[in-house]
């Protein structure tokens, strides 16, 4: 590489000159972008100034080397297969590289192929997404804690009732009243209820993890129904559930529960916390479909278009982050969320989860 220009040879050994000052200026002003370039002989001939901060290789090690040095086998195959069939850009999300301190950095990558002076030049841009991912995770965790706090306020009454019952039976036993087997059955039942409530709350507040396993959908829905049934604002809302008990999905249970709670609470608020919400689950076209249908005023096309904008809300006390968080959690499951107004009244929020088959 020369000081003021880059000399590159094409396959016919014809030398072309690419000015480097302009390239360096561009990447000086876009420090979250790192770039390498390679020719149609697959050899790297340009490394942008800040790229070395992100990787363990030096610029000397990269220049003249094969571009595949930076990618794992799966990523290499994607790049080769794409440009053997197509000429447009290739986008590769979530590519991870380790820097000289062995810290893993996450990138979204865009590779373009340009035809310059009788040769192909590949421009590979690395967009540092680590701080964005961290920010997303912080927002998700904050929303989880807020939701857990909101639910816990309603659960205080449900926790107090079993404790009062337990206290009463223990006082009877302490006073010498003849003990009956029925007392113990009731006390164990109340303790089981307390255990279920605290377990669900702890699950909601757990840090975000990518651990997934096979779960029965109906069991997830029943846990959510139990949680919501403890909310005072939900006392005039009837939740009608239709779900085949054999349907299973691979998922993170607490994340899917949070999605359901978010959507069901939204539906309840759309009906001013009075009426029936229908939660129907079925299988269609290799998807587990979950329809959440409310009896509110319905949703307009204009509002549907704005739903996924951060901080957009139709509620006076809303944050505008609920559906953003919901969509993010569904993205982690390669799932989709669709919204449509009903013909008569209300709206339907539909979750489409990839169908999982038990091994």
Question: Mind sketching the topology for me?
Answer:
Layout: E1 5-9, E2 15-19, H1 21-28, E3 33-39, E4 44-47, H2 59-62, H3 73-85, E5 90-98, E6 104-116, E7 119-128, H4 130-174, H5 181-205, E8 213-216, H6 217-229, E9 237-243, E10 248-251, H7 253-270, E11 275-284, E12 287-293, H8 301-306, H9 322-332, E13 336-341, E14 347-354
Parallel strand pairs: 9-11
Antiparallel strand pairs: 1-2, 3-4, 3-7, 5-6, 6-7, 8-10, 11-12, 12-14, 13-14
Helix pairs in contact: 4-5, 6-7, 7-9
CATH architecture grouping of the largest domain: 2-Layer Sandwich
The tally of structural domains comes to 3
CATH topology of the largest domain: Heat Shock Protein 90
- Enumerate the strands of the largest sheet in spatial order, edge to edge or round the barrel: 4-3-7-6-5
Biggest sheet details: 5 strands, antiparallel
* CATH class placement of the largest domain: Alpha Beta
Tally of DSSP β-strands: 14
> Poorly predicted ranges (pLDDT <50, ≥5 residues)?
1-10, 316-320
* Topology pattern, helix = H, strand = E: EEHEEHHEEEHHEHEEHEEHHEE
Oligomer: single chain
What gross morphology would you assign? elongated
Fraction of helical residues: 25-40%
Structural class: alpha+beta
CATH homologous superfamily title of the largest domain: Histidine kinase-like ATPase, C-terminal domain
β-sheet strand percentage: 25-35%
Radius of gyration: 28 Å
Number of helices: 9
**What is the terminal-to-terminal distance?**
55 Å
Arithmetic mean of pLDDT: 76
Descriptive overview:
By secondary structure, the chain is an alpha+beta fold. The protein has three domains: 5-128, 2-Layer Sandwich (Beta-Lactamase), CATH 3.30.450.20; 132-208, Helix Hairpins, CATH 1.10.287; 210-359, Histidine kinase-like ATPase, C-terminal domain (Heat Shock Protein 90, 2-Layer Sandwich), CATH 3.30.565.10. It contains nine helices and 14 strands. The protein has helices at residues 21-28, 59-62, 73-85, 130-174, 181-205, 217-229, 253-270, 301-306, 322-332, and strands spanning 5-9, 15-19, 33-39, 44-47, 90-98, 104-116, 119-128, 213-216, 237-243, 248-251, 275-284, 287-293, 336-341, 347-354. The strands form four sheets. It has a five-stranded antiparallel β-sheet. A hairpin with a 2-residue loop joins strand 11 and strand 12 (287-293). The chain is elongated. Residues 1-10 and 316-320 have low confidence and may be disordered.
């Amino acid at each position: 590489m020369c000081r003021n220009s880059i000399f590159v040879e094409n396959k016919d050994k014809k030398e072309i000159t690419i000015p480097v000052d302009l390239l360096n200026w561009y990447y000086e002003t876009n420090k979250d972008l790192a770039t390498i370039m390679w020719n149609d002989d697959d050899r790297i001939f340009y490394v942008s100034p800040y790229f070395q901060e992100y990787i363990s290789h030096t610029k000397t090690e990269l220049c003249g080397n094969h571009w595949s040095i930076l990618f794992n086998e799966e990523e290499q195959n994607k790049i080769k297969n794409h440009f053997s069939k197509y000429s447009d850009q290739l986008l590769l999300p979530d590519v991870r590289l380790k820097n000289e301190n062995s810290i893993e950095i996450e990138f979204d990558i865009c590779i373009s192929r340009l035809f310059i002076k009788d040769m192909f030049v590949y421009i590979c841009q690395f967009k540092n997404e680590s701080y964005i991912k961290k920010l997303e995770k912080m927002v998700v965790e904050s929303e989880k804690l807020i939701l857990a706090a909101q639910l816990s306020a309603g659960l205080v009454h449900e926790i107090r009732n079993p404790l009062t019952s337990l206290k009463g039976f223990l006082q009877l036993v302490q006073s010498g009243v003849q003990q009956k087997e029925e007392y113990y059955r009731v006390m164990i039942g109340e303790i089981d209820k307390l255990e279920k409530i605290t377990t669900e709350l702890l699950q909601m507040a757990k840090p975000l993890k990518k651990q997934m396993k096979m779960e029965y959908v109906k069991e997830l829905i029943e846990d959510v129904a139990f949680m919501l049934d403890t909310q005072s604002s939900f006392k005039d809302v009837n939740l009608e559930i239709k779900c085949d008990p054999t349907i299973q999905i691979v998922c993170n249970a607490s994340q899917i529960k949070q999605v359901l709670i978010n959507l069901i609470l939204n539906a309840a608020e759309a009906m001013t916390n009075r009426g029936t919400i229908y939660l129907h689950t079925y299988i269609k076209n290799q998807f587990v479909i979950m329809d959440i249908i409310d009896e509110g005023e319905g949703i307009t096309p204009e509002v549907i278009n704005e739903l996924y904008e951060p901080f957009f809300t139709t509620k006076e006390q809303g944050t505008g982050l609920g559906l953003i968080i919901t969509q993010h959690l569904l993205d982690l499951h390669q799932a989709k969320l669709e919204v449509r107004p009903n013909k008569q009244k209300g709206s339907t929020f539909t979750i489409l989860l990839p169908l999982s088959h038990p091994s």
